[in-house]
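Supplementary Text 2. Reproducibility record for the structural model of the 194-residue chain.

All settings were left at their defaults, and a single model was retained for analysis rather than an ensemble. We include the record here because the model underlies the residue-level annotations in Supplementary Table 4.
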Amino acid sequence: MTVQGRTYDLEPPFFVFATQNPIELEGTYPLPEAQLDRFLFEIPLAYSPEADEVAIVQQTTSTSSEPIRAVVTRQEILEFQQVVRRVPVADDVVRHAVQVVRATRPGDGAAEFVGKYLAYGASVRAAQALVLGGKARALLHGRSHVAYEDIQALARPVLRHRLLRTFQAQSERITTDDLVARVVAGVTPPRSGL
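Retained model, structure tokens:
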């Protein structure tokens, strides 16, 4: 990590979780698209169910608290990361991820609605995120290979923060999720049966 020209080595695993609060924006500024592109996923969170909110209030307003304890070690996290990277992915599935990402870019053969509603599409980092996320999702679903469904299921969290909508899309209240759904629907996976 570099701050004001000075570089600091950060011991792996190093990752950043960030939050955005769309209500209180005074004094904060949106990140530029190039910086947003470095986040793997954007996952919107809704309000918790009432029972969960009650539990949160009870736990945070009393004097008793449970000590925080580690559930995995640093070394285990590094090993999990390597397991994910070793999951095989067929060339056709990688090509599908790339085609989905390329279909978000205005011009270059993209669907007409893309040019109308997107000023900028996703970069190759999005395809990398789709494949890496697909590997992790495959493992979580008990599979040892990435399927087209993994790429399609991760399209919204991977792409929603990487697309820059036009003024027309914003004025028509067309969300990035709407556009991602249309892009994914328009990119047919190869017929290899994965």
